[in-house]
Fold each of these.
Amino acid sequence: MAEEAAVRAQAEAVRRLKQDKADPDEIAKEVAKLLEMKAQLGGDEGKHKFVLKTPKGTRDYNPKQMAIRERVFNAIITCFKRHGAEVIDTPVFELKETLTGKYGEDSKLIYDLKDQGGELLSLRYDLTVPFARYLAMNKITNIKRYHIAKVYRRDNPAMTRGRYREFYQCDFDIAGQFDPMIPDAECLKIVHEILSDLQLGDFLVKVNDRRILDGMFAVCGVPDSKFRTICSSVDKLDKMPWEEVRSEMVEEKGLSPEAADRIGEYVQLHG
Amino acid sequence: QGTRDHPPASVALRDRLLAAAVACFKRHGAAAIDTPVLELRETLTGKYGEDTKLIYELQDQGGELLALRYDLTVPFARYLAMNKITHMKRYHVAKVYRRDNPATTRGRYREFYQCDFDIAGQFDPMIPDAECLKIVHEILSDLQLGDFLVKVNDRRILNGVFAACGVPESQFIAACSTVDKLDKMPWEDVKKEMVGEKGLSPEAADRIGEYVQLHGGLDLIERLLQDPKLSQNKLAKEGLGDMKLLFEYLTLFGITGKISFDLSLARGLDYYTGVIFEAVLLQQENDHVEEPASVGSVAGGGRYDGLVGMFDPKGRKVPCVGVSIGIERIFSILEQRVKASGQKVRTTETQVLVATPQKHLLAARLKLISELWDAGIKAEMLYKKDPKLLKQLQYCEDTGIPLAAIIGEQELTDGVIKLRDVATREEVRM
């Protein structure tokens, strides 16, 4: 205890010297003395300051969690294999330039690696851009592939809502020019098989089409330039009632009330 | 740089290897854990000695200072300390990251898998250590990589030898890392480095040379226990005593045929405190290897009793022993062999292709394939409305699908399907 108090006193003395902009040689001498005192104290100093945790937004998996995870992955992989998908793997980091310009606003959520004198790297944000890179690099025109791996996003982790900064994605994609809607149908069949298999209870798969949405906006008098922003308002209908969505479109996004009403007639339809 | 994509054939092979290792770990009652790929920089600091400069750091983006994990052992120690666990037998299969100079032909990448098995806890001496060696033996035998050898030594014996040979304690680590090079350099060169670079006296180096070129079994251990210089060194005696115990257990496990007590084994990492071991493949004549040294080690590990204590706020120690299987190196070797043999590896497991010979039968195909999937059968079909039968059969041959389920107009009328064996062309109506 006495040694620790002595170290603290010495540290305080060094701070004061630096604050008073004392002679640099004197500062150096006192700093050296401080370091020696700390070294003599042994590893204890370090342990008091040490924080034992995983990085924010990440977590360990204990054996029980691993057992559940393994079961879930098995169900998913079995389904992908049943449909004849091949598996690929890509590195966890990509060249920074590969990821630049692909994620719009979300680009600020990408983890960058420190410039340590080599290539500039970033951690992958999803598995789709790496897939596109893989196809282009290997000049592949047709492939049915699955990829299960972790991705990284510097989100604000609301941990209880299951949103982390490091999390698994299980992707299944079909690349290639084929007759219409057959591969699309298979993707939906796969979702259905997996969710049924995992016995999570009743579920619903909502389907729509960007072309239908855009066509609808055009017909309702939405200017072309506002398509995407109106689209993101409509997207909130699963969390907000129509009245609020309409308000947002008219008041915040500058849509005419008539156009909003016309949109309202369509977007509340499902069947 | 130093990374690669894994195309389907690669992943298929790799997954098989990992499955073999995991099956062995499970057979021995280990439970799996997983940790994040990111760790706080301070978690990794001070654990890897010289290798610290090889750690990938994340850019300071205003939050915590992070780095990519360098191995699975330090995360394990952190996990134990964080959860105040005193006993655990765990395995962990995951990728680690090192800013090495990737000599990619030697199978050395910057991102690579490790398969770790570790036993944490205070137990009676050498029993868990023996189990680790048994596991290495099982996995390497299982993977049919050919003949292999597991070298075993002990940090205490090494340090005891250094002391007995007149090396000052402050030079133990330097001497250790030089001795470690004996698997790549002849003794003459190692001696030169010890005297020329590390400042050891030539007499001390000679005395070391007498010991570190020894290897053998229980007989060697007995001989060294009688050695007048070593028997005066407490650490060496302790190490030799435990080594004898270990060999007795390994004899009961029936694996001493592939184990060698080798005094030249030093192992790079600082945190080993007791037994250390390394498995190497003994080169086959028909293996196409670029350099003899590139066969390298395929597994390594040892006892590290002090690591968890570095994380615990009260410095509480949890003794650990473990092994890391060098899955990437094994994978490179097997991949080379597959390529050399011209074997074709299937990248899918599809059992049957649903095919239609005439036009306008897409609906029938979709219905049938759905039935097959619902029954758990692995099936594919072409994404074409009216594909030609020849094209569909060609697809089977290209991807190795053994069977084709054909429904044509005739079959629909008769309420049957035709099952065709793609290789033999035999057909059966059902």
Amino acid sequence: MKLYCLSGHPTLPCNVLKFKSTTIMLDCGLDTTSALHFLPLPLVHSQLFSKLPGWVSKDGAINLDKELKECAGRVFVDSQPEFCLPEQELLDLSTIDVILISNYHCMMALPYITENTGFTGTVYATEPTLQIGRLLMEELVAFMERVPKAQSATCWKNKEIQRLLPGPLKDAVDVWAWKRCYGTQEVNSALSKVQLVGYSQKVELFGAVQVTPLSSGYSLGSSNWIIQSHHEKVSYVSGSSLLTTHPQPMDQTSLKNSDVLILTGLTQIPTANPDGMLGEFCSNLAMTIRAGGNVLVPCYSSGVIYDLLECLYQFMDSANLGSAPFYFISPVANSSLEFSQIFAEWLCQNKQSKVYLPEPPFPHAELIQTNKLKHYPSIHGDFSSEFRQPCVVFTGHPSLRFGDVVHFMELWGKSSLNTVIFTEPDFSYLDALAPYQPLAMKCVYCPIDTRLNFHQVTKLLKEVQPVHVVCPEPYTQPPPSQSHRSDLMLELQPAPMPYRRCAVLSLPFRRRYERIHLLPELAKSLVPSEIKPGISVATVSAVLQSKDNKHVLQPVPKAAPAPPSKKRKRVIEEPPELLAPKPLLSGAVPLEPFLATLHKHGIMEVKVEETADGHILHLQAEDALIQLEEDGTHIVSDSEPLRATLRDLVLRFLQKL
Amino acid sequence: MDGDCGALLPRVLKVLADPTFDIPDDTCLEKLLDWLQDQARLEDAQSLVQEHPCIPHFISAVCTSESPDAAILAFAVKFTGILAANEGAFLRLDETGVIRMVFGCEEGIMKEMWEDPSVRSAWLHGLGGLVQHERGLRFFCESGLNRVALECQHDKSLFVTSGANNLLAHILNFACLPQCEESVQGDVTCRSAWDRLTVDIVKHISDTLSSDAQFQRRQALKLLALTLPGCRRPLLDRLWAAVLGPLELQIKMEPNSLVLPVMETLEAASRTDLFGQSDARIEDLIEAMLTSGDPNKVIQSASAIIHLEQCSESLKRKALDFILQPLLLISSSSTDTPSPVNGDSVKVHRAVLEGQLTQKSTCVPLLSLSLTSVSKLTSMEFQFMEIPEQLVIGAVMELLWMCLGESKTSTHLIGCSRLQRCCLDALSNLSTCQGGSAIRKNVLEALYHCLRNPDSEPTVLQKSLQAVLKWICVGSYSSELTEFLSQDLFPVLKRRVCDVQWEVRDSTLEFITQLSAHFTDNSVYRELLDCSGILPLLLASAEDGESYVRASAIAALGQAVTTLGPQGVQDPQSGLQVSRFCLPFKCCSLTLLQIFHLSTCVVSLKKVKEGCPLDSGKQTVSKPKPRQTEWHKIQFQKAFPGNKVTADCYGVFPPCSLKVNFTGVNHECSNQRGGNWKKKNRYFSLTVYRFKSPSTS
């Protein structure tokens, strides 16, 4: 069993498991942090970005002022943002049989995997994962296609030039593998390969293994996966949460007794407690609104935003937030808000029960009804006429490189009354803000990551007791910024197996058994005999048929009576002749009684020599040797009659089957 | 007793004696008993019994009743005890046979009802009254009640055992009562009766102390602690000689679960004449308490030792070592500075302690105990002897950093709010220490981190704020403090005022009030407050959904207005304004802060100092501003001579009437147009906050 690690990112995993002749890809996360090296894509002509000076090397030898711009001491690529894909070279993507998706954040690279690679397999995901994943992909495509860039910068990627570049750009790895965003057609084509599954539904893969999604409690439709054969069980845990938010709670019991547990997607901010951060978020928001400022929340259009809106809904009345409106701006804002309300069966019990009242499960429906929350596909159109300040704006993309958020950053960045509150933990907020410097706006970092923290995961692993744990390398040591916090890493016995990008791990467990079925008529003919209490043995002669990874023992077909033929006998293939099988022997030859028996048969002079495996009896008078070992007995003698006699004596002590 | 009550008493007692009558409120018996006790004290109890024959009649009626209510019987018994405390009344009641009926517990009604603990408890209370005089004591002795009282000391009910302890302690100290001293000295029969009783009781204590049952040993220790302070020689010597042996065994016992009662006993003993006496070995025993193997118990003992008045300095120093040791040990493990606590006895203890400190389950109670003891020490103005106070403060701070996850070691304490609370209490108390101002900056930094930490619990935040206040008050105002206020404190307060939890909002607002009150006369602070941007948030908080928060917001605003002076609070952003003017009320003692939350108009009244200049606009609050809709005129019509002022509110939203209830308003002179109020009256500032009405926008 092998694990190919195509991504080293702990929360955006992409691994391939080869198990029992199947090749299973586990998630395909897209690392969008590479976009931070690019200049933001403004929606309208931007004073700020158009005036930036181009970059010229110190000696003036290299002039890339068309491709690279300098802002506040850092250099950005002036081109459409590109993303860092899962590793393509490590293994032939066309050999992948299935892709299992655990949540909508971990499927953003899907079109890169399934399109133009010869992929012919199936993708399995739950319905909310597919639908919301589609929304996120469509949103990403819309962000990019809305503001097309004529040129594509490639010169800077030249190794010789990149080496001379300043700052983080110089250290970016594998830049040639970065790709521009996919298009609508690719999204549709990729998603058409998705087959929907429900929690606890068992899906057979080629008869070899069975895969089952389990609720992971992190987001709508998010799942962990169980991959099991008759004798082996592999659990894949990715992005799970034990907090009570909107999704169905995590199913922990089904993870028990795994041979291997692949653990990814723990919280990215282990030191920040989501409840505390939610409190911080609310208080900073209230503080800004009360002082007459605007609040910008760069966020994804699905996920934590539902919880943020719910929290604000409860907080609003008690904390006197006044009449400041909330705006949610995204090409998919409407669908996202509505989808969340219709996936009732995927929600936590508390929210499910609301549906039967009937009430919308999320309170944002009420916010929309009372006109507190308004959603728009973009800043153009209705929004510009209804826009009122002070207000709270939720919009993407959290990297601040594309989407409507770019506009608001430019609009509000100059006033210290306004605040930008980062809630998504995927991007470093300092890097995200870099091209907007200097910035008067207040910045608050309240990362809300509800995924398992180290304390919870240690407890979980203690309960489910997997034999081996595989996890991304960063989880096996404390974060570099807090090297003293030994509580912020996985400490297990035995130690977890770390993986990094491009690693190929041989998982330390062997398949030892395979299940084989006996046909009833064959089973009827068996004569079991008990060798130990509870264990019976029977010999069987049969034909093994293997098909679709299923093995069946069939009775040996009887030889058809040869048709009477007068012609010259042709050499026909005889069916395998059914010989009566030699009896199988079992048991051990006890030394003392055996010596006594030899004595009885007139063999007096026996010299017994003890060896590592048993005994050697030297029959001196007969000049013969008997080697008694655990798994064999040898009689060495020149005289055939003596050998036969000795053999019969030995056989007396053994059981025949 | 006045005539009406006297006339009513027979009827009341008759009702109580009637078994068919049910008393709905069982506290009325206690209240009646209190009243009767007052009567017996004010008047002569003897004449009370004589003038009201219904009393003995009532008692005997209850005692002869077929099926009395236990509560009524207990009442009657206690009542008898109150009366019998007077020798004359005792004789009178004895003549009628009531005394024997009530206190003879081995026959009659008392025997029947003895199983009820309230009856036993009442019996012991009654006897406590009875044994106030020589005749009572003789009765007690002759009736053989001593044996029953001693049995009661081991009763199942804690109320009964406590009653028995009090009674027995009282009997042992009988000879020291001023009214009895003479009779015990003079009267031979009385003397011998008392002697017999004391011999029995002393033997009982000594036997019980050696008993195997922990409950009984605990009771004996309690009795001892009650008796010792009032006990005199020669009984004192006899008593101590009898208990010394068993007491020593108890102290050496492992595990000693009776640390606190033993310490109480030793504390009581240390206050007697025995203390200086070498053969009494009190100090040795106290010192032995520190040798227990359980660090928790040792700290409990040590904490009690520090409180002893007469204890030697060396022993106190040792006790202090034990208290501080866990604290210094865990903080020095992270800073690598050697602990100054290094006595020999402490070293033995250290290994156990270090083991316990590495585990969260044992470490947290231990450190909490240590911190609580430190808090107690500072509150009694205790000096830390040669251990520098800064070191103690440093250790507490280090622990606080550990809880915040900012320390290099001891990750097992991260996020432990119980310890954080204890640390903050200790830090608050330590602010009074000498040399505090030198490390004020560091302490404030640690406290600032507590305030900033999003995971802090509301209680932790509240305690942090209180500690900040205490430390800000330490030493003089400096530029350092200005920096702390403007760069750290105010930004975090602004956020906390808008917190999700109302408790946090509330305590932050309270803190702002206290802070402004502290800096009323400080011009730098005034400027800081004005530019901090807190004031608009305070105004917004006055409309908070939670009434407590609104109340605190008004108080904070009131204080801010007072601190800022006549210009009031203005907020150009939101168009809100707070202004102030004085209403000429003459009031003597007004301590009110009335809050009105009517639609969007809030009025708060605040007392100001005498001699405050009168605003010329007595009635109109302010002139209308250009943006008409945002302003409301509030006109106060008149101040009634009674206790309220009404004001009508004019403006764009419907008129409403503000009713201000004044307590303690001087009735005689409240007319605002009156002639001479200017000179001598106190004024109240009326702070009026006007808000944009939501309906107008």
